[in-house]
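User: I'll paste a sequence; please echo it back and then give the predicted structure.

Assistant: Echoing your sequence first, then the prediction.
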Amino acid sequence: MKHAELTREIIGHAMTVHKALGNGFQELIYQRALELEMSFHLLDFKREF
């Protein structure tokens, strides 16, 4: 996958998470939600701890 395509996909998943959760949560909540979203779509990644 090219970098631009991968970047678009990651940003799309981040936007999906933000649309679902909205504003006001701590960063950790968004990290965990994005982890679930990206795992669901079989993207290989390492979450920041």
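The chain has one domain: 3-40. The mean pLDDT is 92.
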